[in-house]
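so i finally got all the pieces together for this one. its two components total, 626 residues if u count the protein bits. some of the lines might not be protein, just check the labels. i wanna see the whole assembly predicted at once instead of chain by chain like last time, that was a mess tbh
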Amino acid sequence: MARTEPVQITVVGSGTIGLSFAAFYTVSHRYYTITIYNTRRKPDSYTNSKLLALLPLDHPTPAIRYASTLQEAVQNASIIQECGPENLLFKQSLWSEIERFAPQDALLWSSTSGIPASLQSQRMQDKSRLLVVHPYNPPHIMPLLELVPSAETCEDVIQRTKQFWVENGRVPVHIKREITGFVANRLAFALLREAIHLVHQGIVSVEEVDNIVEMSMGPRWAVAGPFKSYHAGGGEGGLEGFFRNIGGTVQACWEDGGRISVGGEWEKIVFEQAKEIYGVIDIEERDRITSKVLEAVRGECTSQSSCYDCGNM
Amino acid sequence: MARTEPVQITVVGSGTIGLSFAAFYTVSHRYYTITIYNTRRKPDSYTNSKLLALLPLDHPTPAIRYASTLQEAVQNASIIQECGPENLLFKQSLWSEIERFAPQDALLWSSTSGIPASLQSQRMQDKSRLLVVHPYNPPHIMPLLELVPSAETCEDVIQRTKQFWVENGRVPVHIKREITGFVANRLAFALLREAIHLVHQGIVSVEEVDNIVEMSMGPRWAVAGPFKSYHAGGGEGGLEGFFRNIGGTVQACWEDGGRISVGGEWEKIVFEQAKEIYGVIDIEERDRITSKVLEAVRGECTSQSSCYDCGNM
Protein backbone atom coordinates (compact mmCIF):
# COMPACT_ATOMS: atom_id res chain seq x y z
CA MET A 1 0.00 0.00 0.00
CA ALA A 2 1.32 3.43 -0.82
CA ARG A 3 2.45 5.14 2.35
CA THR A 4 1.70 8.68 1.12
CA GLU A 5 -1.77 10.19 1.39
CA PRO A 6 -4.17 10.12 -0.35
CA VAL A 7 -4.64 6.43 -0.97
CA GLN A 8 -6.35 5.68 -4.24
CA ILE A 9 -8.96 2.94 -4.02
CA THR A 10 -10.50 1.58 -7.18
CA VAL A 11 -13.83 -0.22 -6.93
CA VAL A 12 -14.57 -2.43 -9.93
CA GLY A 13 -18.33 -2.79 -10.28
CA SER A 14 -21.06 -0.49 -9.00
CA GLY A 15 -23.73 -2.89 -7.79
CA THR A 16 -24.95 -3.07 -4.20
CA ILE A 17 -21.63 -4.20 -2.73
CA GLY A 18 -19.38 -1.91 -4.78
CA LEU A 19 -21.41 1.17 -3.92
CA SER A 20 -21.61 0.21 -0.27
CA PHE A 21 -17.81 -0.04 -0.09
CA ALA A 22 -17.52 3.28 -1.93
CA ALA A 23 -19.88 4.81 0.65
CA PHE A 24 -17.72 3.47 3.45
CA TYR A 25 -14.55 4.99 1.98
CA THR A 26 -16.37 8.26 1.32
CA VAL A 27 -17.33 8.79 4.97
CA SER A 28 -14.01 7.49 6.31
CA HIS A 29 -11.93 9.93 8.30
CA ARG A 30 -8.92 8.84 6.29
CA TYR A 31 -7.94 10.45 3.05
CA TYR A 32 -8.98 8.25 0.18
CA THR A 33 -9.65 9.05 -3.44
CA ILE A 34 -12.21 6.75 -4.96
CA THR A 35 -12.33 5.55 -8.53
CA ILE A 36 -15.22 3.48 -9.81
CA TYR A 37 -15.00 1.35 -12.91
CA ASN A 38 -18.47 0.41 -14.13
CA THR A 39 -18.21 -3.04 -15.65
CA ARG A 40 -21.72 -2.70 -16.99
CA ARG A 41 -21.32 0.86 -18.31
CA LYS A 42 -24.03 2.47 -16.24
CA PRO A 43 -24.24 6.28 -16.54
CA ASP A 44 -22.04 8.01 -13.95
CA SER A 45 -24.93 10.21 -12.81
CA TYR A 46 -27.03 7.12 -12.04
CA THR A 47 -24.21 5.58 -10.01
CA ASN A 48 -23.58 8.85 -8.19
CA SER A 49 -27.21 9.17 -7.11
CA LYS A 50 -27.28 5.55 -5.89
CA LEU A 51 -24.14 6.22 -3.89
CA LEU A 52 -25.49 9.44 -2.43
CA ALA A 53 -28.50 7.53 -1.09
CA LEU A 54 -26.15 5.48 1.11
CA LEU A 55 -24.47 8.50 2.69
CA PRO A 56 -25.61 10.49 5.74
CA LEU A 57 -28.32 13.04 4.85
CA ASP A 58 -26.09 16.10 5.12
CA HIS A 59 -23.13 14.61 3.29
CA PRO A 60 -21.80 16.58 0.29
CA THR A 61 -21.75 14.87 -3.09
CA PRO A 62 -18.58 12.78 -3.09
CA ALA A 63 -15.82 13.43 -5.60
CA ILE A 64 -15.84 10.06 -7.30
CA ARG A 65 -13.68 9.57 -10.35
CA TYR A 66 -15.21 7.37 -13.05
CA ALA A 67 -12.68 5.60 -15.22
CA SER A 68 -13.52 4.77 -18.80
CA THR A 69 -10.98 1.97 -19.19
CA LEU A 70 -9.75 -0.66 -16.78
CA GLN A 71 -6.18 0.48 -17.31
CA GLU A 72 -7.04 4.04 -16.38
CA ALA A 73 -8.99 2.75 -13.36
CA VAL A 74 -6.22 0.70 -11.81
CA GLN A 75 -2.88 2.09 -12.98
CA ASN A 76 -2.41 4.39 -9.97
CA ALA A 77 -4.45 2.49 -7.43
CA SER A 78 -3.18 1.26 -4.07
CA ILE A 79 -6.21 -0.95 -3.57
CA ILE A 80 -8.29 -2.60 -6.27
CA GLN A 81 -11.51 -4.09 -5.01
CA GLU A 82 -13.48 -6.30 -7.36
CA CYS A 83 -17.26 -6.18 -6.78
CA GLY A 84 -18.39 -7.59 -10.11
CA PRO A 85 -20.80 -10.36 -11.06
CA GLU A 86 -20.37 -13.81 -9.47
CA ASN A 87 -19.00 -15.36 -12.63
CA LEU A 88 -15.76 -17.31 -12.62
CA LEU A 89 -14.72 -16.56 -16.21
CA PHE A 90 -15.41 -12.85 -15.75
CA LYS A 91 -13.27 -12.73 -12.63
CA GLN A 92 -10.43 -14.79 -14.11
CA SER A 93 -10.21 -12.55 -17.13
CA LEU A 94 -10.52 -9.40 -15.01
CA TRP A 95 -7.62 -10.31 -12.72
CA SER A 96 -5.30 -11.21 -15.58
CA GLU A 97 -5.97 -7.77 -17.04
CA ILE A 98 -5.72 -5.92 -13.73
CA GLU A 99 -2.41 -7.62 -13.00
CA ARG A 100 -0.98 -6.12 -16.19
CA PHE A 101 -1.91 -2.52 -15.34
CA ALA A 102 -1.90 -2.23 -11.56
CA PRO A 103 1.11 -1.08 -9.50
CA GLN A 104 3.18 -3.98 -8.25
CA ASP A 105 2.32 -3.38 -4.60
CA ALA A 106 -1.41 -2.70 -5.06
CA LEU A 107 -3.69 -4.86 -2.96
CA LEU A 108 -6.07 -6.98 -5.07
CA TRP A 109 -9.29 -7.89 -3.30
CA SER A 110 -12.31 -9.84 -4.48
CA SER A 111 -15.64 -9.34 -2.70
CA THR A 112 -16.99 -12.68 -3.89
CA SER A 113 -19.27 -14.58 -1.55
CA GLY A 114 -18.35 -17.94 -2.97
CA ILE A 115 -15.70 -18.16 -5.71
CA PRO A 116 -12.37 -18.91 -4.01
CA ALA A 117 -9.19 -16.96 -4.81
CA SER A 118 -7.52 -20.18 -6.00
CA LEU A 119 -10.02 -20.38 -8.87
CA GLN A 120 -10.15 -16.67 -9.63
CA SER A 121 -6.36 -16.41 -9.89
CA GLN A 122 -5.82 -19.24 -12.36
CA ARG A 123 -4.99 -16.94 -15.25
CA MET A 124 -2.75 -14.63 -13.22
CA GLN A 125 1.03 -14.55 -13.58
CA ASP A 126 1.41 -13.90 -9.85
CA LYS A 127 -1.28 -15.74 -7.94
CA SER A 128 0.17 -14.64 -4.62
CA ARG A 129 -1.37 -11.18 -4.96
CA LEU A 130 -5.06 -12.09 -4.82
CA LEU A 131 -7.11 -12.19 -1.63
CA VAL A 132 -10.83 -12.67 -1.06
CA VAL A 133 -12.16 -9.92 1.22
CA HIS A 134 -15.73 -11.01 1.77
CA PRO A 135 -17.97 -8.41 3.43
CA TYR A 136 -21.17 -8.96 5.34
CA ASN A 137 -23.78 -7.02 3.44
CA PRO A 138 -23.95 -4.01 3.45
CA PRO A 139 -20.28 -3.28 4.15
CA HIS A 140 -20.80 0.41 4.89
CA ILE A 141 -22.77 -0.73 7.97
CA MET A 142 -21.51 -4.19 8.97
CA PRO A 143 -18.07 -4.47 10.59
CA LEU A 144 -17.09 -8.01 9.50
CA LEU A 145 -14.70 -8.81 6.65
CA GLU A 146 -13.67 -12.39 5.99
CA LEU A 147 -10.15 -12.55 4.58
CA VAL A 148 -9.94 -15.83 2.67
CA PRO A 149 -6.56 -16.43 1.03
CA SER A 150 -5.78 -19.21 -1.42
CA ALA A 151 -2.84 -21.47 -0.62
CA GLU A 152 -0.79 -19.15 -2.86
CA THR A 153 -1.79 -15.79 -1.39
CA CYS A 154 1.28 -14.31 0.28
CA GLU A 155 1.32 -13.50 3.97
CA ASP A 156 2.25 -9.87 3.35
CA VAL A 157 -0.96 -9.28 1.39
CA ILE A 158 -3.00 -10.77 4.23
CA GLN A 159 -1.22 -8.68 6.86
CA ARG A 160 -1.46 -5.37 4.96
CA THR A 161 -5.15 -6.03 4.31
CA LYS A 162 -5.79 -6.82 7.94
CA GLN A 163 -3.99 -3.65 8.99
CA PHE A 164 -6.03 -1.53 6.57
CA TRP A 165 -9.32 -2.75 8.02
CA VAL A 166 -8.27 -2.54 11.64
CA GLU A 167 -7.13 1.05 11.03
CA ASN A 168 -10.57 1.69 9.58
CA GLY A 169 -12.28 0.41 12.72
CA ARG A 170 -13.49 -2.81 11.13
CA VAL A 171 -13.15 -6.47 12.06
CA PRO A 172 -11.15 -8.49 9.54
CA VAL A 173 -11.05 -12.21 10.33
CA HIS A 174 -8.47 -14.41 8.65
CA ILE A 175 -10.11 -17.64 7.46
CA LYS A 176 -7.25 -20.14 7.45
CA ARG A 177 -8.27 -22.23 4.46
CA GLU A 178 -10.64 -21.91 1.54
CA ILE A 179 -13.92 -23.59 2.37
CA THR A 180 -17.34 -23.64 0.65
CA GLY A 181 -19.29 -20.50 1.57
CA PHE A 182 -16.50 -19.27 3.89
CA VAL A 183 -17.48 -19.07 7.58
CA ALA A 184 -20.19 -16.47 8.33
CA ASN A 185 -22.58 -17.82 5.71
CA ARG A 186 -21.96 -21.44 6.70
CA LEU A 187 -22.90 -20.62 10.28
CA ALA A 188 -25.99 -18.65 9.28
CA PHE A 189 -27.11 -21.26 6.75
CA ALA A 190 -26.85 -24.02 9.40
CA LEU A 191 -29.33 -22.12 11.57
CA LEU A 192 -31.48 -21.30 8.54
CA ARG A 193 -31.72 -24.98 7.63
CA GLU A 194 -33.10 -25.89 11.06
CA ALA A 195 -35.44 -22.87 10.93
CA ILE A 196 -36.86 -24.02 7.59
CA HIS A 197 -37.27 -27.55 8.94
CA LEU A 198 -39.27 -26.30 11.94
CA VAL A 199 -41.54 -24.15 9.79
CA HIS A 200 -42.05 -27.04 7.38
CA GLN A 201 -43.01 -29.26 10.32
CA GLY A 202 -45.60 -26.70 11.45
CA ILE A 203 -43.88 -26.14 14.82
CA VAL A 204 -43.56 -22.37 14.29
CA SER A 205 -44.22 -19.87 11.50
CA VAL A 206 -41.68 -17.86 9.52
CA GLU A 207 -42.60 -14.77 11.52
CA GLU A 208 -42.32 -16.63 14.84
CA VAL A 209 -38.83 -17.88 13.97
CA ASP A 210 -37.81 -14.30 13.30
CA ASN A 211 -39.40 -13.09 16.54
CA ILE A 212 -37.60 -15.82 18.45
CA VAL A 213 -34.19 -14.99 17.00
CA GLU A 214 -34.69 -11.21 17.31
CA MET A 215 -35.61 -11.55 20.98
CA SER A 216 -32.96 -14.05 22.05
CA MET A 217 -29.90 -15.09 20.02
CA GLY A 218 -29.72 -11.91 17.96
CA PRO A 219 -29.16 -9.41 20.80
CA ARG A 220 -27.16 -11.97 22.79
CA TRP A 221 -24.79 -12.73 19.93
CA ALA A 222 -24.43 -9.04 19.09
CA VAL A 223 -22.72 -8.82 22.48
CA ALA A 224 -21.16 -12.26 22.98
CA GLY A 225 -20.80 -14.87 20.25
CA PRO A 226 -22.02 -18.46 20.65
CA PHE A 227 -18.88 -19.90 22.25
CA LYS A 228 -18.53 -16.99 24.66
CA SER A 229 -22.23 -17.23 25.54
CA TYR A 230 -22.17 -20.94 26.26
CA HIS A 231 -18.85 -20.58 28.08
CA ALA A 232 -20.64 -18.11 30.37
CA GLY A 233 -23.63 -20.46 30.53
CA GLY A 234 -21.43 -23.17 31.99
CA GLY A 235 -20.58 -21.01 35.01
CA GLU A 236 -17.20 -21.80 36.54
CA GLY A 237 -16.97 -24.93 34.40
CA GLY A 238 -17.05 -22.82 31.21
CA LEU A 239 -17.91 -24.43 27.90
CA GLU A 240 -16.95 -27.82 29.28
CA GLY A 241 -19.36 -27.32 32.19
CA PHE A 242 -22.07 -26.30 29.75
CA PHE A 243 -21.70 -29.54 27.80
CA ARG A 244 -21.49 -31.55 31.03
CA ASN A 245 -24.80 -30.02 32.14
CA ILE A 246 -26.85 -30.18 28.94
CA GLY A 247 -24.72 -32.03 26.40
CA GLY A 248 -27.43 -34.70 26.27
CA THR A 249 -30.03 -32.18 25.13
CA VAL A 250 -27.60 -30.66 22.62
CA GLN A 251 -26.89 -34.09 21.11
CA ALA A 252 -30.61 -34.93 21.02
CA CYS A 253 -31.30 -31.68 19.13
CA TRP A 254 -28.47 -32.40 16.69
CA GLU A 255 -29.69 -35.92 15.99
CA ASP A 256 -33.26 -34.73 15.59
CA GLY A 257 -32.28 -31.79 13.34
CA GLY A 258 -33.82 -31.39 9.90
CA ARG A 259 -31.86 -32.41 6.81
CA ILE A 260 -33.90 -30.53 4.23
CA SER A 261 -32.48 -29.65 0.80
CA VAL A 262 -32.77 -26.65 -1.48
CA GLY A 263 -35.63 -27.29 -3.91
CA GLY A 264 -37.64 -29.36 -1.41
CA GLU A 265 -41.39 -29.12 -0.90
CA TRP A 266 -40.79 -26.74 2.01
CA GLU A 267 -40.13 -23.94 -0.47
CA LYS A 268 -43.74 -23.27 -1.36
CA ILE A 269 -44.81 -22.94 2.29
CA VAL A 270 -41.82 -20.91 3.46
CA PHE A 271 -41.58 -18.57 0.46
CA GLU A 272 -45.30 -17.80 0.62
CA GLN A 273 -45.24 -17.06 4.33
CA ALA A 274 -42.27 -14.73 3.91
CA LYS A 275 -43.92 -12.91 1.02
CA GLU A 276 -47.22 -12.54 2.84
CA ILE A 277 -45.69 -11.25 6.08
CA TYR A 278 -42.89 -9.07 4.80
CA GLY A 279 -43.76 -7.91 1.30
CA VAL A 280 -40.95 -5.56 0.33
CA ILE A 281 -38.67 -4.77 3.27
CA ASP A 282 -37.47 -1.28 4.14
CA ILE A 283 -33.72 -1.87 4.14
CA GLU A 284 -32.91 1.71 5.11
CA GLU A 285 -34.80 1.34 8.38
CA ARG A 286 -33.09 -1.98 9.06
CA ASP A 287 -29.66 -0.49 8.44
CA ARG A 288 -30.38 2.54 10.59
CA ILE A 289 -31.43 0.37 13.54
CA THR A 290 -28.48 -1.98 12.98
CA SER A 291 -26.13 1.00 13.22
CA LYS A 292 -27.70 1.90 16.56
CA VAL A 293 -27.25 -1.67 17.79
CA LEU A 294 -23.59 -1.59 16.79
CA GLU A 295 -23.17 1.77 18.53
CA ALA A 296 -24.74 0.32 21.67
CA VAL A 297 -22.19 -2.49 21.68
CA ARG A 298 -19.30 -0.19 20.77
CA GLY A 299 -20.14 2.35 23.45
CA GLU A 300 -19.61 -0.25 26.10
CA CYS A 301 -16.29 -1.61 24.92
CA THR A 302 -13.62 -2.29 27.48
CA SER A 303 -9.98 -2.53 26.54
CA GLN A 304 -9.93 -6.19 27.61
CA SER A 305 -12.49 -7.46 25.13
CA SER A 306 -12.40 -7.80 21.36
CA CYS A 307 -13.51 -4.54 19.89
CA TYR A 308 -13.63 -3.17 16.40
CA ASP A 309 -13.68 0.39 17.64
CA CYS A 310 -10.40 0.48 19.47
CA GLY A 311 -8.82 -2.13 17.25
CA ASN A 312 -8.33 -4.80 19.91
CA MET A 313 -8.51 -8.13 18.15
CA MET B 1 -55.75 -15.08 36.50
CA ALA B 2 -57.26 -13.04 39.30
CA ARG B 3 -58.55 -9.77 37.87
CA THR B 4 -58.01 -7.76 41.07
CA GLU B 5 -54.65 -6.25 41.97
CA PRO B 6 -52.22 -7.22 43.34
CA VAL B 7 -51.50 -10.44 41.48
CA GLN B 8 -49.66 -12.97 43.61
CA ILE B 9 -46.89 -14.76 41.79
CA THR B 10 -45.18 -17.71 43.41
CA VAL B 11 -41.75 -18.71 42.17
CA VAL B 12 -40.79 -22.25 43.12
CA GLY B 13 -37.00 -22.51 43.26
CA SER B 14 -34.45 -19.75 43.77
CA GLY B 15 -31.66 -20.67 41.40
CA THR B 16 -30.52 -18.45 38.53
CA ILE B 17 -33.80 -18.62 36.61
CA GLY B 18 -36.14 -18.31 39.57
CA LEU B 19 -34.35 -15.24 40.91
CA SER B 20 -34.17 -13.66 37.48
CA PHE B 21 -37.94 -14.00 37.06
CA ALA B 22 -38.41 -12.61 40.59
CA ALA B 23 -36.22 -9.65 39.61
CA PHE B 24 -38.35 -9.04 36.53
CA TYR B 25 -41.59 -9.02 38.56
CA THR B 26 -39.96 -6.77 41.18
CA VAL B 27 -39.12 -4.01 38.69
CA SER B 28 -42.38 -4.39 36.75
CA HIS B 29 -44.67 -1.38 36.70
CA ARG B 30 -47.54 -3.70 37.49
CA TYR B 31 -48.58 -4.57 40.98
CA TYR B 32 -47.32 -8.03 41.87
CA THR B 33 -46.62 -9.62 45.21
CA ILE B 34 -43.88 -12.19 45.00
CA THR B 35 -43.58 -15.36 47.00
CA ILE B 36 -40.53 -17.58 46.78
CA TYR B 37 -40.53 -21.19 47.82
CA ASN B 38 -36.99 -22.46 48.25
CA THR B 39 -36.99 -26.09 47.26
CA ARG B 40 -33.49 -26.45 48.63
CA ARG B 41 -34.10 -24.51 51.86
CA LYS B 42 -31.54 -21.81 51.35
CA PRO B 43 -31.57 -19.03 54.00
CA ASP B 44 -33.95 -16.21 53.02
CA SER B 45 -31.23 -13.59 53.60
CA TYR B 46 -28.95 -15.36 51.11
CA THR B 47 -31.69 -15.48 48.48
CA ASN B 48 -32.59 -11.84 49.12
CA SER B 49 -29.01 -10.66 48.57
CA LYS B 50 -28.73 -12.70 45.35
CA LEU B 51 -31.96 -11.13 44.11
CA LEU B 52 -30.87 -7.63 45.06
CA ALA B 53 -27.76 -8.06 42.88
CA LEU B 54 -30.02 -8.43 39.83
CA LEU B 55 -31.94 -5.19 40.46
CA PRO B 56 -31.00 -1.65 39.37
CA LEU B 57 -28.46 -0.04 41.74
CA ASP B 58 -30.88 2.34 43.40
CA HIS B 59 -33.72 -0.18 43.80
CA PRO B 60 -35.08 -0.63 47.34
CA THR B 61 -34.95 -4.08 48.91
CA PRO B 62 -37.96 -5.91 47.50
CA ALA B 63 -40.69 -7.17 49.81
CA ILE B 64 -40.42 -10.87 49.01
CA ARG B 65 -42.46 -13.32 51.00
CA TYR B 66 -40.73 -16.61 51.74
CA ALA B 67 -43.09 -19.51 52.25
CA SER B 68 -42.10 -22.35 54.53
CA THR B 69 -44.43 -24.95 53.01
CA LEU B 70 -45.54 -25.55 49.45
CA GLN B 71 -49.19 -25.23 50.50
CA GLU B 72 -48.58 -21.82 52.04
CA ALA B 73 -46.62 -20.79 48.92
CA VAL B 74 -49.28 -21.61 46.37
CA GLN B 75 -52.69 -21.48 48.05
CA ASN B 76 -53.38 -17.84 47.15
CA ALA B 77 -51.27 -17.57 44.02
CA SER B 78 -52.53 -16.50 40.60
CA ILE B 79 -49.38 -17.69 38.91
CA ILE B 80 -47.12 -20.53 40.02
CA GLN B 81 -43.85 -20.65 38.18
CA GLU B 82 -41.67 -23.71 38.65
CA CYS B 83 -37.92 -23.01 38.39
CA GLY B 84 -36.63 -26.11 40.13
CA PRO B 85 -34.03 -28.69 39.16
CA GLU B 86 -34.25 -30.40 35.75
CA ASN B 87 -35.43 -33.68 37.19
CA LEU B 88 -38.55 -35.40 35.89
CA LEU B 89 -39.54 -37.16 39.12
CA PHE B 90 -39.11 -33.94 41.11
CA LYS B 91 -41.33 -32.01 38.70
CA GLN B 92 -44.00 -34.74 38.49
CA SER B 93 -44.28 -34.92 42.24
CA LEU B 94 -44.25 -31.12 42.59
CA TRP B 95 -47.13 -30.59 40.16
CA SER B 96 -49.31 -33.25 41.74
CA GLU B 97 -48.85 -31.45 45.07
CA ILE B 98 -49.29 -27.96 43.66
CA GLU B 99 -52.49 -29.04 41.96
CA ARG B 100 -53.97 -29.99 45.34
CA PHE B 101 -53.28 -26.60 46.97
CA ALA B 102 -53.41 -23.99 44.20
CA PRO B 103 -56.54 -22.00 43.26
CA GLN B 104 -58.45 -23.61 40.41
CA ASP B 105 -57.71 -20.79 37.97
CA ALA B 106 -54.01 -20.30 38.84
CA LEU B 107 -51.63 -20.50 35.90
CA LEU B 108 -49.08 -23.30 36.27
CA TRP B 109 -45.84 -22.68 34.41
CA SER B 110 -42.66 -24.72 34.17
CA SER B 111 -39.41 -22.99 33.19
CA THR B 112 -37.81 -26.25 32.04
CA SER B 113 -35.47 -26.08 29.08
CA GLY B 114 -36.11 -29.64 28.06
CA ILE B 115 -38.70 -31.72 29.98
CA PRO B 116 -41.99 -31.44 28.10
CA ALA B 117 -45.27 -30.65 29.86
CA SER B 118 -46.69 -33.99 28.72
CA LEU B 119 -44.12 -35.80 30.89
CA GLN B 120 -44.24 -33.40 33.82
CA SER B 121 -48.03 -33.61 34.08
CA GLN B 122 -48.31 -37.39 34.21
CA ARG B 123 -49.24 -37.51 37.90
CA MET B 124 -51.68 -34.58 37.71
CA GLN B 125 -55.47 -34.99 37.92
CA ASP B 126 -55.96 -32.16 35.44
CA LYS B 127 -53.18 -32.20 32.86
CA SER B 128 -54.78 -29.36 30.92
CA ARG B 129 -53.46 -26.80 33.43
CA LEU B 130 -49.73 -27.18 32.84
CA LEU B 131 -47.75 -25.10 30.34
CA VAL B 132 -44.02 -24.86 29.70
CA VAL B 133 -42.93 -21.19 29.69
CA HIS B 134 -39.30 -21.46 28.66
CA PRO B 135 -37.30 -18.26 29.07
CA TYR B 136 -34.10 -17.25 27.32
CA ASN B 137 -31.60 -16.78 30.08
CA PRO B 138 -31.62 -14.42 31.96
CA PRO B 139 -35.36 -13.66 31.79
CA HIS B 140 -35.10 -10.30 33.56
CA ILE B 141 -33.12 -9.11 30.50
CA MET B 142 -34.17 -11.24 27.52
CA PRO B 143 -37.62 -10.69 25.98
CA LEU B 144 -38.33 -14.18 24.59
CA LEU B 145 -40.60 -16.74 26.25
CA GLU B 146 -41.36 -20.01 24.47
CA LEU B 147 -44.83 -21.26 25.39
CA VAL B 148 -44.77 -25.01 24.80
CA PRO B 149 -48.07 -26.73 25.60
CA SER B 150 -48.60 -30.49 25.74
CA ALA B 151 -51.41 -31.92 23.61
CA GLU B 152 -53.56 -31.68 26.75
CA THR B 153 -52.83 -28.09 27.76
CA CYS B 154 -56.02 -26.10 27.32
CA GLU B 155 -56.21 -23.14 24.97
CA ASP B 156 -57.38 -20.78 27.72
CA VAL B 157 -54.17 -21.35 29.68
CA ILE B 158 -52.08 -20.57 26.59
CA GLN B 159 -54.07 -17.42 25.82
CA ARG B 160 -53.99 -16.05 29.38
CA THR B 161 -50.28 -16.71 29.57
CA LYS B 162 -49.66 -14.99 26.27
CA GLN B 163 -51.69 -11.99 27.40
CA PHE B 164 -49.74 -11.73 30.67
CA TRP B 165 -46.42 -11.55 28.87
CA VAL B 166 -47.55 -9.16 26.15
CA GLU B 167 -48.92 -6.85 28.87
CA ASN B 168 -45.49 -7.05 30.48
CA GLY B 169 -43.77 -5.95 27.27
CA ARG B 170 -42.32 -9.36 26.51
CA VAL B 171 -42.44 -11.63 23.47
CA PRO B 172 -44.22 -14.93 24.11
CA VAL B 173 -44.09 -17.31 21.14
CA HIS B 174 -46.47 -20.25 21.00
CA ILE B 175 -44.60 -23.38 19.94
CA LYS B 176 -47.27 -25.52 18.30
CA ARG B 177 -46.04 -28.96 19.33
CA GLU B 178 -43.63 -30.39 21.86
CA ILE B 179 -40.26 -30.93 20.24
CA THR B 180 -36.82 -31.83 21.63
CA GLY B 181 -35.11 -28.68 22.94
CA PHE B 182 -38.02 -26.46 21.84
CA VAL B 183 -37.14 -23.92 19.12
CA ALA B 184 -34.64 -21.26 20.25
CA ASN B 185 -32.10 -23.78 21.49
CA ARG B 186 -32.50 -26.01 18.44
CA LEU B 187 -31.70 -23.06 16.19
CA ALA B 188 -28.73 -21.95 18.27
CA PHE B 189 -27.38 -25.49 18.62
CA ALA B 190 -27.50 -25.97 14.83
CA LEU B 191 -25.20 -22.97 14.39
CA LEU B 192 -23.05 -24.09 17.31
CA ARG B 193 -22.53 -27.51 15.70
CA GLU B 194 -21.18 -25.95 12.51
CA ALA B 195 -19.05 -23.54 14.55
CA ILE B 196 -17.47 -26.44 16.46
CA HIS B 197 -16.85 -28.28 13.20
CA LEU B 198 -15.03 -25.29 11.70
CA VAL B 199 -12.85 -24.83 14.79
CA HIS B 200 -12.10 -28.54 14.86
CA GLN B 201 -11.06 -28.35 11.19
CA GLY B 202 -8.68 -25.49 11.97
CA ILE B 203 -10.51 -23.03 9.69
CA VAL B 204 -11.07 -20.48 12.47
CA SER B 205 -10.51 -20.27 16.22
CA VAL B 206 -13.13 -20.13 18.96
CA GLU B 207 -12.47 -16.41 19.37
CA GLU B 208 -12.71 -15.78 15.62
CA VAL B 209 -16.07 -17.53 15.43
CA ASP B 210 -17.32 -15.25 18.18
CA ASN B 211 -15.90 -12.16 16.46
CA ILE B 212 -17.55 -13.20 13.22
CA VAL B 213 -20.98 -13.69 14.78
CA GLU B 214 -20.75 -10.54 16.93
CA MET B 215 -19.89 -8.43 13.89
CA SER B 216 -22.40 -9.89 11.42
CA MET B 217 -25.32 -12.16 12.28
CA GLY B 218 -25.67 -11.01 15.87
CA PRO B 219 -26.46 -7.34 15.23
CA ARG B 220 -28.34 -8.20 12.02
CA TRP B 221 -30.58 -10.75 13.71
CA ALA B 222 -31.17 -8.43 16.67
CA VAL B 223 -32.97 -6.24 14.13
CA ALA B 224 -34.31 -8.70 11.54
CA GLY B 225 -34.42 -12.47 12.02
CA PRO B 226 -32.97 -14.90 9.47
CA PHE B 227 -36.04 -15.22 7.23
CA LYS B 228 -36.65 -11.49 7.19
CA SER B 229 -32.95 -10.87 6.45
CA TYR B 230 -32.78 -13.28 3.56
CA HIS B 231 -36.15 -12.09 2.28
CA ALA B 232 -34.60 -8.62 2.10
CA GLY B 233 -31.46 -10.13 0.57
CA GLY B 234 -33.51 -11.45 -2.33
CA GLY B 235 -34.58 -7.93 -3.33
CA GLU B 236 -37.93 -7.82 -5.08
CA GLY B 237 -37.89 -11.61 -5.40
CA GLY B 238 -37.88 -11.97 -1.62
CA LEU B 239 -36.84 -15.25 -0.02
CA GLU B 240 -37.60 -17.07 -3.26
CA GLY B 241 -35.30 -14.69 -5.14
CA PHE B 242 -32.61 -15.24 -2.54
CA PHE B 243 -32.71 -19.00 -3.07
CA ARG B 244 -32.86 -18.55 -6.83
CA ASN B 245 -29.68 -16.46 -6.65
CA ILE B 246 -27.57 -18.43 -4.22
CA GLY B 247 -29.49 -21.62 -3.48
CA GLY B 248 -26.61 -23.58 -4.98
CA THR B 249 -24.16 -22.17 -2.45
CA VAL B 250 -26.64 -22.75 0.38
CA GLN B 251 -27.07 -26.39 -0.61
CA ALA B 252 -23.31 -26.85 -0.98
CA CYS B 253 -22.79 -25.47 2.54
CA TRP B 254 -25.50 -27.75 3.93
CA GLU B 255 -24.02 -30.83 2.28
CA ASP B 256 -20.54 -29.92 3.43
CA GLY B 257 -21.67 -29.13 6.99
CA GLY B 258 -20.07 -30.90 9.96
CA ARG B 259 -21.87 -33.77 11.68
CA ILE B 260 -19.91 -33.79 14.91
CA SER B 261 -21.30 -35.35 18.09
CA VAL B 262 -21.16 -34.46 21.76
CA GLY B 263 -18.20 -36.28 23.30
CA GLY B 264 -16.11 -36.18 20.12
CA GLU B 265 -12.43 -35.42 19.96
CA TRP B 266 -13.23 -31.77 19.19
CA GLU B 267 -14.04 -31.23 22.86
CA LYS B 268 -10.45 -31.01 24.06
CA ILE B 269 -9.50 -28.39 21.46
CA VAL B 270 -12.64 -26.29 21.76
CA PHE B 271 -12.97 -26.39 25.55
CA GLU B 272 -9.32 -25.44 26.01
CA GLN B 273 -9.51 -22.52 23.58
CA ALA B 274 -12.62 -21.19 25.30
CA LYS B 275 -11.03 -21.50 28.74
CA GLU B 276 -7.82 -19.83 27.63
CA ILE B 277 -9.50 -16.89 25.89
CA TYR B 278 -12.41 -16.20 28.18
CA GLY B 279 -11.54 -17.45 31.65
CA VAL B 280 -14.47 -16.44 33.82
CA ILE B 281 -16.87 -14.13 31.98
CA ASP B 282 -18.35 -10.98 33.49
CA ILE B 283 -22.05 -11.70 33.04
CA GLU B 284 -23.11 -8.37 34.52
CA GLU B 285 -21.29 -6.46 31.79
CA ARG B 286 -22.78 -8.72 29.11
CA ASP B 287 -26.28 -8.19 30.47
CA ARG B 288 -25.83 -4.43 30.72
CA ILE B 289 -24.71 -4.18 27.07
CA THR B 290 -27.46 -6.56 25.96
CA SER B 291 -30.02 -4.26 27.60
CA LYS B 292 -28.60 -1.36 25.61
CA VAL B 293 -28.83 -3.36 22.40
CA LEU B 294 -32.47 -4.18 23.14
CA GLU B 295 -33.17 -0.52 23.89
CA ALA B 296 -31.57 0.45 20.57
CA VAL B 297 -33.94 -1.90 18.73
CA ARG B 298 -36.95 -0.89 20.81
CA GLY B 299 -36.35 2.83 20.37
CA GLU B 300 -36.78 2.45 16.65
CA CYS B 301 -39.99 0.44 16.67
CA THR B 302 -42.69 1.36 14.19
CA SER B 303 -46.29 0.41 14.73
CA GLN B 304 -46.20 -1.79 11.64
CA SER B 305 -43.53 -4.16 12.81
CA SER B 306 -43.53 -6.80 15.53
CA CYS B 307 -42.52 -5.11 18.71
CA TYR B 308 -42.37 -6.26 22.29
CA ASP B 309 -42.49 -2.73 23.58
CA CYS B 310 -45.83 -1.64 22.19
CA GLY B 311 -47.25 -5.15 22.25
CA ASN B 312 -47.67 -5.53 18.50
CA MET B 313 -47.24 -9.20 17.75
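Chain B has 13 helices and eight strands.
Chain B touches chain A through 108 residues (CB under 8 Å).
anyway lmk what u think
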